[in-house]
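Whiteboard transcription, Tuesday session. T.W. wrote the structure tokens on the left side:
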């Protein structure tokens, strides 16, 4: 299928060779949309090892600034972004970067007068969302706002009032100006349909998934004296594994064989706001059943997952998010222990995935958690194949077909929607 009349600009802060999990979704769309005949260009902050005419790198001038020694004088732009992060959306990046990206998009639009331009921005970080918004407001371009996470990152009720206010502001701007909005889980779309009923015709759901050409698979388990349970990814505000760590400590203290013959490893950053039970964490490390490995290259993290006896998923704080690592876990096929709310999309996917799994709810009583953990520790460590349902719903090639239909729907519209203020 040839699509000669459309130019699709994909704004993705992270893109391979970045090891961020968020780089995979735009890469897969880019890959399969090109196979469908679309003219796609990537605009990213990630440096490329091999230059490509289809990839434009706009480096974030503030990358690494926040790691500068205390007291060091910062660029003027850094102070602007600091104010943005301090008073509006703490922890978000790319505010200043978005201006440079929007300027690059304007240049591309000017240089392609015969093309109908569609901008696809994938959030987070906030810079991609702002770049898409600026491009939509200043050019005759359609805008697809893709959300891998809600803007706040956690349920609204967990946010401070000031942050909640600005989160709502950016949500409203997005739902007013975007020609299409994509949620990556049905539960998030349901919330937005209630909050923005006028945007229902423009709201779509495209889940994360797996690349059938590059599926992680289980590897042979190395010889070791204990079974290894691995979690890979950042622990941040609300995402903490305390319920499992505390249960593991209780089983270990009782001398339960399955606990004594297992250990847990966390690969990745542990944010100070994660709320980790420090006493349990310190004791677990001292007793040898717990390890915090820190940040490692993506290839190394993936190898550890592929060689693990079991996999841990930590998402207790929200029922409207499905982390991308879940799909990697299911492809690997080894038993999965998830901390997630009752009746969450995570639990639904796990139950239908074909993989051995146990789901611990944040409000489970301690004895229930102990029983569920023990059940998980008793699973055989052999990998299970994914179900036909999982393959049919989360294959990235098929998901790209959904995005292609969204793009084609915007092409058939006579003109971009009004830029009138909301």
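and on the right, the sequence the group agreed on:
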């Amino acid at each position: 299928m040839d699509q000669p009349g459309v130019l699709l600009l994909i704004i993705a802060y992270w893109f391979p060779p970045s090891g961020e999990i968020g780089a995979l979704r735009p890469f897969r769309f880019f890959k399969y949309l090109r196979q469908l005949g679309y003219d796609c260009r990537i605009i990213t902050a990630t440096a490329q090892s091999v230059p490509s005419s289809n990839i434009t790198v706009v480096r974030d001038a503030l990358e690494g600034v926040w790691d500068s020694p205390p007291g060091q004088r910062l660029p003027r732009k850094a102070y602007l972004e600091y104010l943005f992060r301090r008073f509006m959306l703490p922890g978000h990046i790319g505010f200043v970067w978005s201006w440079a990206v929007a300027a690059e998009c304007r240049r591309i639009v000017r240089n392609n007068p015969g093309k109908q331009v569609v901008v696809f921005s994938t959030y987070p970080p906030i810079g991609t969302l702002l770049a898409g918004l600026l491009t939509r407001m200043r050019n005759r371009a359609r805008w697809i706002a893709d959300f891998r996470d809600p803007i706040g990152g956690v349920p609204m009720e967990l946010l401070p009032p000031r942050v909640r206010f600005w989160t709502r502001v950016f949500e409203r701007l997005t739902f007013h100006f975007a020609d299409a909005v994509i949620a990556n889980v049905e539960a998030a779309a349901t919330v937005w349909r209630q909050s923005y009923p006028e945007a229902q015709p423009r709201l779509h759901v495209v889940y994360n998934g797996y690349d059938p050409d590059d599926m992680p698979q289980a590897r042979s388990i190395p010889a070791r004296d204990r079974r290894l349970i691995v979690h890979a990814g950042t622990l941040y505000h609300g995402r903490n594994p305390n319920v499992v760590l505390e249960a593991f400590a209780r089983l270990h203290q009782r001398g339960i064989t399955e606990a004594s013959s297992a250990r847990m490893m966390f690969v990745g950053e542990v944010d100070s706001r994660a709320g980790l039970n420090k006493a349990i964490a310190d004791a677990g490390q001292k007793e040898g059943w717990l390890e915090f490995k820190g940040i490692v290259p993506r290839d190394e993290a993936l190898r550890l997952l592929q060689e693990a006896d079991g996999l841990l998923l930590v998402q207790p704080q929200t029922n409207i998010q499905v982390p991308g690592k879940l799909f990697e876990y299911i492809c690997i096929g080894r038993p999965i222990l998830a901390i997630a709310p009752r009746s969450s999309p995570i639990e639904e996917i796990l139950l239908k995935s074909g993989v051995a799994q146990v789901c611990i709810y944040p409000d489970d009583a301690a004895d229930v958690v102990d029983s569920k953990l023990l059940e998980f520790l008793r699973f055989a460590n052999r990998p299970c194949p994914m179900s036909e349902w999982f393959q049919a719903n989360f294959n990235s090639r098929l998901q790209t077909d959904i995005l292609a239909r969204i793009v084609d729907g915007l092409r058939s519209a006579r003109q971009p929607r009004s830029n009138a203020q909301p």
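Someone added at the bottom: The domain at 3-209+395-412 is CATH 3.40.50.2000 (Rossmann fold).
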